[in-house]
Amino acid sequence: MKKLFYLSHFLIVFSMLAFSANGQDISKIKVFLDCSNCNENYYRTQLGEVSFVRDRKVADVHILLSSTYLGTGTQHWELQFIEIPEKEGKPTQLTTDTFQAQTENEVDQHILKYIKAGLLPYLLENSSEMEVDFSLPKASEQNMQIVPDSDPWNFWVFEIGGDIDFSKESNQSEYELEGELDLERTTEAWRYRGEIEYLYQNNKINRNGTEFNSSLKRVEASGSVVKTLGEHWAAGVFGRMYSSTFTNIKQGSSLQAAMEFNFFPYKQVATKEFTIAYFIGPRMFEYFEPSIYEETQENRMAHNLSINLNLRKPWGTAEVRLKGYQFLHDLSKNRVELSSELSVRLVKGLFLRTSADFSVIRDQLYLPKGDASIEEILLERRAIATDYETSFSVGIAYVFGSIYNSIVNTRL
Description:
Helices cover 13% and strands 51% of the residues. By secondary structure, the chain is mainly beta.
């Protein structure tokens, strides 16, 4: 009897758990939320009117949420609501901006309003008994995020930061000091940027009574002015001054003029971008130690070409960058860099992520004469001669099981 009692008790409890786990209302519209930089858990808890699913193919609506930073602390968001199966014509698209002064929660609430606005037609079509709460902001609240006419900062945004890291063991210690100042002013017609960076690292190692002391120091100041030339063109001037013990450069500087063409309108940068940019100008070097070419200082003309492709689509994201550098006094002194990142949904639940970088390096004019010590090599305190550099990574993930994922439970 006891066995029968325990068995019946187990079956009752199991049945209750099984039926209670089926908390999704399959009559609701199914939404596939596709975003890499958003608070998904917040949206799931706030949107009880829909069922979130993990597989795009079983969804009724695919929300593609993407963002890009525009400068001056502004983040531009683009929301596409793609009906599945896809119909002719463009999907519904909404855009909005959030600002640096807003907290993360305020940003979440702001984006949530736009998600609800985009889903409203599908919700109304799916249910004739739905209660809709629609309101407009009060006159005093309208456009409260738009920069007022009397902006005392005139669109300038400044950011100052720094950190100190220290660690110590009985036979070794490591110390790092880093500071940074950024300033930017962005308008529709102009973009100004400036940056100052400082980095100091020091390592001490005591081995068998002998102490090794190694340090690295880098200081850099850079600035640029870019002029908008319509929906596809831009031109600018870039300047830079720097010093680095790693590259043997006591004092370096460059001044470049640049021109860029974007095959897509710049306003679509959140979802697609394909640019070609050309830079040309003088570069000046003064070295801590004589270089392998017996130079203590030199002035050289150089140019470089940069090609960038960025796509964010329902199937995934792709980014490819190709850069070429060349000194004009000796065309054999050059460098080519190719890098890519890819994240693709191959089939239902199967994701592929890859990244690859490859560089051909023939422009190390700054290398000092003589051999680097073993400490400098191991601690990466000095650049060493190389003809190439490469790295590659690949990852795969397969997700299966219930297609629903609206419930958020973070207990324990």
